[in-house]
Each structure stands twice: as structure tokens, then as C-alpha cells.
Amino acid sequence: MRDVAIIGAGMIPFGRRDEDTLMEMLAYASLKALDDCGLGDKTVDAVYVANMGGGMLQHQSAIASSLVDRLSLMPAAAETIENGPASGASAIKAGLLAVASGYYDYVLVVGGEKMREVTGWRATDVVATMTHPQAEYPYGITLPGMAGMFTRLYMEKYGVTREHLLAVSLKNQEMGTLNPYAHVEMALDREGIFDSPDAVVNNPVSADPLHLYDLCPVSDGAAAVVICPLEMTKAGKGGQKTPVLIAGFGQATDTQTLQERDDPTDLKAVTLAAQKAFEMAKLKPSDIDVAELHDAFTILEIAESEHVGFFKKGEGGKAAVAGKTRLGGQIPINLSGGLKARGHPVGATGVAQVVDIVWQLRHELPKTRQVQKARHGLTVNFGGFGNNVLAFVLKRVEV
Amino acid sequence: MKKEIAITAYKCKKCGKIHYPYHDRCLACKNREFEPLKPEGDAKLLAYTAIFNLPWGFDQRYLILGIAEFENHIKAMGQIKADSVDQLKTGMLLRPSWEPIRVQYGEDVYGLKFEPVE
Predict the structure, then answer these.
(1) Residues on chain A touching B59 (C-beta within 8 angstroms)
(2) Domains in chain A and their CATH numbers?
(3) If phi over 0 gives left and psi between -120 and 50 gives alpha, with beta otherwise, what is residue A38?
């Protein structure tokens, strides 16, 4: 198997993009990644497109075939990858395996989703189709609802408090104000959403015990990377910027319903995916300089920070309050603003997480978001309610 | 007339593990043979939430949902008949019933509902 490097990365600002179609967003992000690596007008061998809801939201199928046509990348191979909110990381995995095997050299991976053209009511339903079609979906369960149940159990078992959740929310929205690609560029005022009597109105319960500002927004957006064998970057054929090695990768699944897990607070797939990624990279959690975790709900940043091994169980919330996950802290998490502020166009998220870590490892970000001398990064892309999880360990390649 | 609870769980004929919903292979021992099992008695509340941003198809202000475990250890999700989560507590006893849980294409869809036992 060949070592595989990311040589190009691109993203378009997330948010409400009424002016763009899904295909336009995918094309813009792709062109940014292609330009970033200097491939110019050359083609790639294959294109993997991550998208979860195009069939339901845009009534559009065979999206990858359409994209290669739009980008004039024929006769490149093209596939659409659908794996719920983990579609982005799954598409990168598909590209990684194809290049590592020696079958393809240059692969474009792009993830995108356009969710804001339907009502919140409809978007919530589309995302809820991930739940079990007989045992869960008919009852009206939503992903925030699953997270609400999980949060209460986590609070009861590990002593997580609303104060802990608030620390994640404040941090990530503050980072969002520093990220021009973020959907929500608005810092939160603790008084207004937590301490004052007005907080009941400003920050109402959304999925008890989670409140509005514990949830990520529904977003439009797209992100892309270009990958190739590491050996080609050494031969000068792999782009013009510092390559980032995909040093480790892991994926694991769990039961679809929470009720069938022996311990519903145990995110086994997160633990296993991260362990596999660390093992492959020959690194440990303490070697990681910066992480992008899947904080669709504030509780998930806390729980994932424990399950990947940054903190012991029950310590993640306290660590967030103590500032250990901020820039300059023990392990900076979600300096992009995370899903909480950058937004969560479901098919794009896993790719966007990797793009943000690539920028960190190339040392390209402004000081307010850049981890100094960052060498190793981790991403966790969380599908369903933790029933399909992918993790990547990325490593800066010194040239 | 009170309707029978129309869910069926499946007990592995080899190791005894109870599954709901159905799986083609046992989650514990991979065996493929099961005996059907109907829920019995009241149920213990394991997890719950109230959701205020409902999906398409629900025309109401909020919905209280939970997971409960029946006396014969079947675990299932259902809607909870309560005004607020303040009336609920993990571990409390619930009485199950089979009632309309939503309307689809003009027809009632039936499912599990739970009500706190006084």
C-alpha cells in the first residue's frame, strides 16, 4: 500500500446560499481544491462526491456523474458516496483506498449539501430518515431528540452539566467569528443565553435537556480535497504546497438504535475508529496538536473528546470549562467553530473537517486560529447517532 | 376497545438475547433462529426527551419520547403521555398502550405510547 497525501484543499463559505445550486457549490469547492494544488487544467483519475440528501432535497441523483461533466473532468471515474452525516469522511476513505492500492494517482474528493432550500421542518425529517424505519422514525424522533436522550444519560452517569455544554457553545461560536467560512459568525453572550431571565426566550429548549445553542445550524456548503501518492509529492508532481499525509484512518459501526446498546452512553464506534486511526499512524492521543470533532450537539464534542482518548470519561466537560480545548490549551478542538458555528451541510462536513486540519498543518491560518507548529491533527466524522464513525489522523510532511 | 401492542421482539434460540427491532443474525452470537416474543407488563423508563423542533408530519408544539424496558426485557421507543419532562424520571414505571402516534396520508399510524403509572 502506498502512503497517500492531501495536496489540495478548498472550501466555500457555509451558510444559507440561496444563489447557488448544489452542483454549483460542489463545482466551486472542487475548483478551489484543484487550483490549490496547482493541477490546473489537468484532469484527475477519479472523483468521489459525498452527498446525503440530494435525492430527497433536490430530487437529483447520479450527482458525481453530473459534476465531472460540469468540471470537464471526463473520462475520470466518478461515484457518489452516501453515508449519512459521515458521507464526507467515507468519500475521503474511498479515495484514500483507491490511491493507496495503486489503482489511481490523482483523486478529487468533494462533499456538499444544500439543505436550506427546504423548511426546517422538512430538513429535520430528511435527517431523521437515518433512524430505524419501524422502531424509531414513525414516533417522530429526530437526531436532536436522540442527542437529548443521550445527553440526559451522560449527565446522569458522568455529571456533565449545562455549564459544561455552554463552554463548548461559547468557544465554538467565538471561533466561528474568526472563520470566514463559518455559517454562524456571531459570538454568544453568556448572560443572554444562560444567566439572565431572558435566556428562556433567547435560548429555548430544543431537545430536552439540549437548548437551541447546543445544536448546530442547518447549512448549505461544500468542501474538497485532492489526494495523490506521497511519493509523487516528493518527485515534485504533487502540488505546490506542504503535503499532508493521511497517516491513519479508522472506521467502526454500532447498533442503529440506542436501545440495543449495552450502555447507550458508550460511543463504541468513536473509540474503535479513533483507536484504529492512531494505531495505523503509530501515534497516540497525546501526540495530536489539533482536532476537529463532530459537534453536531455540544454534548458530542465533550463525549468524543473522552472517547478518542483526550480526556478520561467524565472529564471532557470540565476540560472544556477549564479552557483545555481552546487555542493554547492542552488539545485545541474545533478551532474552525466546529459544526456548531461552521455549520453542518451533512455531506460536506467530513471533508470540511479535513480541510480545516490541512490548513492547520500547513500553518496557513491567522494567528487567532492557528495552533503554532501543529504537526498532527485528528478528525472524527459521526454518522447516524454514532452508528457509523470515521476518524483520520493527519500529519504534516516536512519538505 | 384497548388494542393489543403490535410489536414483536425476537429471542435468540441459542443464547437467549432479546432483539427489537428484528435482526437477521443475533447481535451476540450470530445465530439466525429466533422465537417471537410479545411485550409483557409495564415498562421502566430508560431514557427520555421532549423535542420542540418536530419533523415534517407532526402538527403539534412538542413531543415527549422515551425508551422503556418491558418486564420481559424488551426495550422499545415510544411516545410518552405527559405534559412535561418534569413529570418524568429515569427508572420510573410506565404503562404501555397501542394508539395513534401520527397521521400519514390521512390515515392514523399506530405505535407505542407510555403513560406514567400513578
Answers:
(1) none
(2) 4-119+218-234 (3.40.47.10)
(3) left
Residue to substitute from A115, A119, A134, A149, interface B, most B β-carbons within 10 A: A149
Backbone angles phi, psi at B48, to 5 degrees: -160, 160
List Cα–Cα distances, A346 to A74, A371, A384, B46, B69, in angstroms.
27, 26, 11, 29, 33
Residue reference for cell 504533487: A238
Between chains, do B52 and A149 touch, taking CB under 8 Å as contact? no
Half-sphere exposure of A240 (CA within 13 A, CB side): 8
Which helix (H) or strand (E) segment holds residue B111: the answer is strand B107-116
Q: How far is CA B14 from CA A143, B19, B25, B29, in A?
A: 34, 13, 11, 8
Instruction: Please name which of A140, A165, A142, A139 lies closest in space to residue A152, comparing C-alpha atoms.
Output: A165
In this prediction the pTM is 0.97
Of A122, A128, A258, the CB nearest to B67: A258
Class of domain B39-116: mainly beta
Q: Are A310 and A291 in contact (CB under 8 A)?
A: yes
How many CA atoms, within 13 angstroms, populate the side-chain half-sphere of residue A221?
31
The cell numbers describing A348, all together, are 460536506
CB atoms within 10 A of CB A43: 16
Is residue A173 within 8 A of residue A112, CB to CB? The reply is: no
**Partner-chain contact B79 A134, CB within 8 Å:** no
Residue found under cell 400519514: B104
Which of A150, A200, A208 is the best mutation test for B, with the most CBs of B within 10 A? Answer: A208
**Domain ranges in chain B?**
39-116
Q: Is the pLDDT of residue B5 over 70?
A: yes
Residue-wise pLDDT tens digits, B64-88:
999 999 999 999 999 999 999 999 9
* Concatenated DSSP letters of A60-103: ---HHHHHHHHTT-TTSEEEEE-BTBTHHHHHHHHHHHHHHTTS
A323-357 pLDDT tens trace: 999 999 999 999 999 999 999 999 999 999 999 99
Nearest to A199, CA basis, from A233, A155, A169, A223: A169
Q: Single out the residue of A389, A297, A399, A394 nearest to residue A89, CA to CA.
A: A389
d(CA A107, CA A44): 6
